[in-house]
Design goal:
The chain is an alpha/beta fold and 258 residues long. Helices cover 40% and strands 21% of the residues.
């Protein structure tokens, strides 16, 4: 019991003693957010604000309360070519509006910074390891990856995806398409074929800055409620990929071989 209490207190300091033993949550959700230098500070700030607003929105709170247990566990980190270690916001139970606001405020207090390269595979591996180590058992386990380009650093993305999916996790994507990407057929197609996976996995594209907050909120509500998105943004995981899942690595190699 002391070990469990110490772990819970060390995570966020907000999980009450009464919650010990109530380990089941409707969703264990990891938010993995791209902060690579292909986005400028303004875009990253808009992205950050989109998550903060979505976490405080009534639709998000209502989705949490509408679940079987009426609570979720959520965590957050930023990534580029590597995981930004001081960006990790560890697991917190969200059961009330106050819980959601407290988590959003932690995120809002983070300094905004950018890093080099893009390693979606590292983001997926980090998300999977956080879910495995979580003191909460999610009825569903979801890694939520947002990004604005294909994998070009670290391990290839598809083995990381397949390993997480084989463990029972779902990977959803938010394809940030505010400017042309290195994915020839569109970043949303790349994410659909190479990144997302698991039952009901989906990718949502964002084409305009003003749509970001709405897209984030929509994505979170879908993930928490378990609803199926429209077929226009849902893909069948496991289908033969049409996109080149190594396109980012090839472009980076070609850049240095010029």
């Amino acid at each position: 019991m002391l070990t469990t209490l110490a772990v819970l207190m060390g995570l966020s300091g907000v999980v009450p003693v009464a919650e010990i033993g109530r380990s089941e949550v409707d969703v264990a959700l990891v938010l993995a957010v791209d902060t690579s230098r292909s986005m400028d500070f303004e875009e990253i700030g808009i992205q950050r604000q989109g998550y903060v607003e979505a976490l405080k929105h009534k639709e998000f709170i209502d989705a949490v309360k509408g679940g079987l247990t009426g609570r979720i566990a959520i965590s957050y980190f930023e990534w580029a070519g590597y995981v930004v270690q001081d960006s990790v916001i560890d697991w917190q139970v969200i059961e009330t509006e106050a819980d959601a606001i407290a988590f959003a405020d932690k995120l809002d207090a983070r300094p905004i910074a950018t890093q080099r390269r893009t390693s979606i595979s590292t983001a997926i591996a980090q998300g999977a390891s956080m879910i495995i180590a979580a003191p909460f058992q999610g009825r569903r386990e979801v890694i939520d990856v947002s990004g604005d380009g294909p994998n070009n650093s670290g391990n290839p993305v598809t083995p990381a995806r397949d390993k997480a999916v084989a463990s029972g996790m779902v990977i959803n994507g938010l394809a940030i398409m505010l400017r042309p990407s290195d994915a020839p057929d569109g970043l949303d197609k790349y994410y659909a074929d190479c990144v997302i996976g698991g039952p009901g996995a989906f990718v949502l594209p964002v084409h305009k800055v003003e749509d970001f907050a709405i897209a984030v909120r929509r994505k979170l509500v879908l993930e928490i409620s378990g609803l199926s998105p429209p077929v226009t943004v849902q893909e069948t995981a496991g289908a033969a990929p049409a996109a080149d899942c190594l396109v980012g690595e090839k472009q980076w190699r070609d850049f240095f071989e010029r």
